[in-house]
Amino acid sequence: MQRSRELHRPPSVSLHVVVVILTLLTISAHTQRETDQPMENEPRESAESKSKLDEELFKKLFAQRRKDHIQAVQTLLKMDNYERLYKMIAMLAEKVVEVIESSKSVIEEAAFVPNNSSFPEDTNIKEALSSILENTALFGDIILHLPDISHRILSTHQSLNSTLHWSLNFADRMRHLLDESTITMIRLVVQELNIAERDPNYFNPYRSAADEREDDSKVTKKKKKKQSAKKRKKGPQIAKIDL
Predict the structure, then answer these.
(1) Distance from C-alpha of 125 to C-alpha of 104, rounded to nearest angstrom
(2) Which end of the chain has fewer beta carbons closer than 10 Å to its terminal beta carbon, N or C?
(3) In the chain, which residues have pLDDT < 50?
């Protein structure tokens, strides 16, 4: 009976988060390929109008993916185990950088110059562009919502920084493809990481909530230590006898 209950136990929050976010990291290229398939009876447009339509579609798909990012980050914030969350974010950071590095190679080999003059026609470039912007935005959200963990990871894993700095700069140069909230987020992340000089009025709007979660985590750890100490004291005691 006990065995049956274990088999039907729902997956933990941490496992759910890993599945959701790793799916987000790999789904963009497949989505982009599907949008490149010509529709039946689609009229032939000029190269300029086709490029404009592709760009608008790209923006819509990116906006949809951003909603998924927000849900994934909210799921992360529900975790109450600091060290487990730290390990998960560290793993995700490495995966994000791996994906960005791969797409960066495609961009550089194609000699693509980030600007707003024209949207790329090559499918591989569009996939790489989507991958870089989406992964940069996702990890940017994590940095702002979980600043202490993010700073700790980036200071410990120095190799991640150069790729992240490159991708943030790339995203800023391609901001004509981003929605306003993502543009604002990128600017905040650049200042949060001190990549650019901070505005005198800069503040991380999620910092107070992050600090509150950090304090709650410390309180929980103290309570667990006290409870553990009490349990140990309840064990057999040697009576003190005065002679």
Answers:
(1) 10
(2) C
(3) 1-14, 39-41, 239-241, 243
Please indicate, yes or no, if residue 113 is contained in any of the structural domains.
yes
User: What pLDDT score does 198 carry?
Assistant: 93
Q: Considering the domain boundaries, does residue 124 fall inside one?
A: yes
pLDDT, residue 225, reads 58
Write out the residue range of the structural domain in which residue 146 sits: 53-196
Q: What is the pLDDT of residues 90-112, one digit of tens each?
A: 999 999 999 999 999 999 999 99
In a domain, 22, yes or no: no
3-state SS track over the chain: CHHHHHHCCCCCHHHHHHHHHHHHHHHHHHHHHHHCCCCCCCCCCCHHHHHHHHHHHHHHHHHHHHHHHHHHHHHHHCCCCHHHHHHHHHHHHHHHHHHHHHHHHHHHHCCCCCCCCCCCCCHHHHHHHHHHHHHHHHHHHHHHHCHHHHHHHHHHCCHHHHHHHHHHHHHHHCHHHCCHHHHHHHHHHHHHCCCCCCCCCCCCCCHHHHHHHHHHHHHHHHHHHHHHHHHHHCCCCCCCCCC
Residues 73/141, Cβ–Cβ less than 8 Å: yes
Amino acid code (one letter) for 116: N
**What letter represents residue 210's amino acid?**
A
Domain count for the chain: 1
Q: Are 84 and 14 in contact (CB under 8 A)?
A: yes
Quick one: 37 exposed, middle or buried, by C-beta within 10 A (0-12, 13-18, 19+)? Answer: exposed
In a domain, 8, yes or no: no
User: CA 230 to CA 42: how far, in whole Å?
Assistant: 74
Residue 91 has a pLDDT of 92
